[in-house]
C-alpha cells in the first residue's frame, strides 16, 4: 500500500533555472506569497546561478469523511466551534478503528490533523467515564519522544476546554506532589517512554487504578523509534501490556507518523500485535516549491570552483526571506551551526532593527522555558525567522510558516521530509530550499534533483528479540512481577534462553513458579533507553545562572576551556570545564573569533572471539576499543583565517563494544587491480554498514565503522564495523554469522548502482566524518570480490 508521502511526490515538474543576473534589488513585501517570485529575487547579483533546479510538488485535494455518531457532544461542539466543521477521510477512518478497539497506525502527511483522529475516540471514552463510581472512569496514555511534543499536545487538549476532563503531563520536570495527583486522578497522562520505563512500570502498584482503567495508548511520531531506541521502546510496550493484563485491562494502541516506511509492519513490531494502517491522506495541501541551491561560483563547465558554507549561505537566505516578509525556519545539523546561522542572519538585518530582533535560534540544550517561549513566539508570528536543529522536526505545532531552508543534508530521508513538511502548515503555498553543503552527498543531490523524490524513506528497523536489549528488560520485568513461562506471549521464544543466561550470571533466580529479581537496587535504573549519558551544565560565572546543557560525550569538543560558546547569539568564553562536577563555567564577551576542536581517534582490537579464514582473507568477531580524544582547538577569524592552535589536556572518551572485521592482504588487492586501497576500503566500509540491516536488523545509526590501509593490530588493510553501544548490541555478531550473504549483497548492490563514481545509494554515507573522502567505487567492488572469492574456495 502506498504511503501519503509517495502521493505527495507525484507529478513533479523539473525546471532548469537560467543563470542570468538580474540587476534589481528586493522590493516591498509581496501581497501574496509566490515562491517562484521569491526565488527569482534570491538568485540575484552574487548569488546568480546558485539556484540549480526547482521542483513543483502538486497540490492535494481534500477528501472529507463523516463525523462518527458516537462522538461526545461536548467534544463535537468544541472541535466544530474551533473552526473544524468537517473531518478528513483519514481522521474519520482512524477514529472508527480506535473506537472499535482495533490497533491502528495513521501515516499521513505533515500537518494533516492526525492527532484529531485518535483524540476523538480517546476523549469520548474519557468524557463518558468521567462520572464513573470510581471517580475516574477510563484512562489513556500518550507517549512522545520529547517533552516538547507532550507539552504541545497538552496545550491542544486543554484548548478544547472539555468539562470534567483531567489531563496532565508526567515527565522529569513534574514536581513530587503533582506526580501523586497525576497517578491518582488524571485520566489522560502525557509522558515519554523513559518515564514509563523508570517510573510507571517499576511502581505499578501506585498506578494500579490508572492501569486497571487504561483504554488507549497513543504512540506519536512512531518513526523516531527505530534501531536500538525503537527496540527498547518495543520491549517497554511489551512490559506495559504484561502489567495491564495483570490488572485485567487490554488497551487499544494508536500510532501516528508523517514519515515512516511500511507503517503497519513497523507499528506491529513496536506493539507486538497486528496493526491496521491508515495511509490515504484526506487533508488538502497547497502546492510546494522545492528549490535546489548550490552556493558559490562555477567554471564554464558548470562545476563549483569556490563554494560558501551551507550555514553561511542559509543565514543569508534566511535574512533575505525575513526581509521579504516570509516567515521561515532554517535547519542546521549542529547546535553551533544553529547559533552561527541565527547570529549571521541578525547581522544581515541590522539595518532594519525591528526585523533583526525577530530572528532567534532554537536547539537542544536550551532550558525548557526558553524553548516554550520561542515556540509561542513562532506561532504568534512575533518571530519571523528561526534557526533550528532537528529539535523542531517533530509535531510541535508551528503552523503559519511560509518557507524552510535546509543547510545541508539533515542525516536521513525521514528527517528531510519532516523538515520540508514544516512549511505550508496554514494551507497556503510554501517554499523549501535545500542548500548543498560541502559533502559529496550534497553535491550529488543538487545535481540529481530527481533523487529526493525517488528515494524511499528509510526502513525503521526494530528487533525486540535482540538478546542484548531484551536481557536487561527481562530483569526489569522480573522486578515488576515474576516472569513466568506464560510471558513468552509477550517476549517471544527467545525469552527462555535469555532468562537462562540471566540466571547463570546471577542476575535472576529461578523458582518453581517463575524467575525473580533477587537484588535490592531497582532493575529499571540500570537500563537506558536512548544510550545517553549525563549532561554537562553550562553556568555563567558570577551569577550562577544555568544557560543550558550539553551531552557529556560532546562536552570536550564544545565547552572546553577557551571555547567560544554561543547562546541566542550572545557569545560566551568558557573559562573552565569540570567534568567531575559536570559543569562548564562561562563569561559573557565576544573575543572576535570562533573556535573549533580537533580530535584524534584510535581503534584497538582487544579480543578476537571468533574467526573464519577464507584463504588469506581473515574474518573476525570480537571486542574492540574505540577511543576519541580532543587534543586541541583552533581560533578562527570571521574571514576563516586561523589565528592559532592551542593544545588541550582532556581525558579520552572510550567505547568498548563488539565488532566484525576482515582483512585482505595488500598483495591480493594489487593482483585484483586495486590501486587506491584507502578509497576502496573506505567505500566498502560505507556500503557494508548500509547493507547490514539485510542480516542484522540494525539501523545505520546504530553502528559505526573504520577502515584503514594498514591497521596496527593486523598489519594489513582492514575494514571494521562495530556496534555503537557499550558492550555491543548484537548487530556486528549477526553480520559475522551471515558474512557471506551480507558481503555478497554489499558487493552486488554497489556493482549494480548506475552511478559512475559513487552516490548516496551505494558508497556515500550521510554520517561520514571524513566528508566521504577518499572513496573508490570500483575498488570497493574488487575488494569485496577478493574476499568473497577466497571464501568460495574454502
Task: Provide key terms for this protein.
single chain, 794 residues, alpha/beta, 8-stranded mixed β-sheet, 7-stranded parallel β-sheet, 28 helices
Report on the structure:
With 794 residues, this protein is of the alpha/beta class. The chain has 28 helices and 32 strands. Strands 1-2-12-19-18-15-17-16 form an eight-stranded mixed beta sheet, sandwiched between helices. A seven-stranded parallel beta sheet has the order 7-8-6-9-10-5-11, with helices on both faces. Residues 1-30 and 297-306 have low confidence and may be disordered.
Task: Give the arrangement of secondary structure elements.
Blueprint: H1 4-8, E1 13-16, H2 35-42, E2 51-57, E3 64-65, H3 73-81, E4 87-88, H4 89-99, E5 104-106, H5 114-128, E6 139-143, H6 147-159, E7 167-169, H7 176-185, E8 188-191, H8 193-200, H9 208-212, E9 214-219, H10 227-246, E10 252-256, H11 263-271, E11 276-278, E12 288-293, E13 297-298, E14 304-306, H12 310-323, E15 328-331, H13 335-348, H14 353-356, E16 359-362, H15 368-380, E17 385-388, E18 403-407, H16 413-420, E19 430-435, H17 440-447, H18 450-454, H19 467-480, H20 488-491, H21 495-504, E20 509-511, E21 514-516, E22 535-540, E23 546-551, H22 552-558, E24 564-567, E25 570-578, E26 583-588, E27 594-614, E28 617-636, E29 642-647, E30 653-663, H23 666-671, H24 677-691, H25 693-696, E31 703-708, E32 718-723, H26 731-737, H27 739-752, H28 777-793
Parallel strand pairs: 5-10, 5-11, 6-8, 6-9, 7-8, 9-10, 12-19, 15-17, 15-18, 16-17, 18-19, 22-26
Antiparallel strand pairs: 1-2, 2-12, 3-4, 13-14, 20-21, 22-23, 24-25, 25-26, 27-28, 28-29, 28-30, 30-32, 31-32
Helix pairs in contact: 4-5, 10-19, 12-13, 19-21, 24-27, 24-28, 27-28
